[in-house]
Input
Amino acid sequence: MDPVAHSFTGAALAAAGLRRATPLAVAALVIGANLPDVDVFSGAFGTYAPIGFRRGWTHGVLALVLWPFVLTGALLAWDRYVRQKRNTHAAPARAGPLLAVAALAVVTHPALDWLNNYGLRWLMPFDGRWFYGDAVFIIDPWLWLMLGGAAFLTFSQSRLARIRWTVFFALASVLVLANTALVPRLSAVLWVVGITVLVAARRWLRAAPPSTLERAAQVGIALAGVYIGALVTASAAARSEIREAAAARGIEAEAVSLAPAPANPFRGDVVVMTRDEYRTGRFDWLTTPHLVLDEERVARPSGRVFAAAAQAPAAKLYLVWSRFPAIEVETAPGGGTLVRFFDMRYRSMDRIPGPSVRLDGAGALSSD
Output
């Protein structure tokens, strides 16, 4: 998921009562909820390095064990050498509770990342397999409302905090309302209603005791949990129906993916992989039939040209990540062959373009 959703998850947990566990609990929850994403800095090692490295080592089981200790150690050092020196009367952070909330926050990160069709490698570094939830779009405004709303009710008391929240909700509203090609009109209306309800609830609870605000935050987290559970269940049912519908048309699916649509939990883009080719389409719970397959068929890559191009360093990194790899082959300017890699999941959106590899006249990697 996006950093906003991860941050709101940590902040919502803090608002629900965990901020009272120990000094620096809020920092542990928000930082821990984002910590596995330190792999974004792999971009310094090349264009496709992040694709080959992302959601692997830093998101895997070994990292999930180590990150809470790293974060707790860093926060305890900050507490001792900075915070308590600035305020000698401040209560010191407690190592045990701090480690516990840090561990909880860190675990939420891969759990949320699993929900979308980008995937992650849970078992790294012991196993490089990818796991996909195919249930939630990578940027989900409804999670922003539920988790962010839980945090908003608690962490919007100061004037500066209210300004920050106003800026966020304004920018988020532009993102939701301006993308008319992707976000359905009904979703845009529901977003505005949701913001209005949150603002009204904040005014209504402005004099409420902390215990009431904590219960409100707990309700927001519970709603998010129910929403996620419903989407995971619906995605599993949809993929099962896609397999059955494909089989009824004589298509033997080896794998099926459902890419959730932005702000629309009822719709998703489909990829069906057979032994030799890919089929794409759309699935919508609100239409009949639910599944519509495109006529186009894309061959799965194979043969000498693909094998040669796949040896390029950028291609190797891309193929580590690619779930449904495909290629386009054309004659390169000046002779030879140009092989363009892409993934069927993102072909229609052209969001994650793959590398282009040039082969010489003999079919070997070109040095040009």
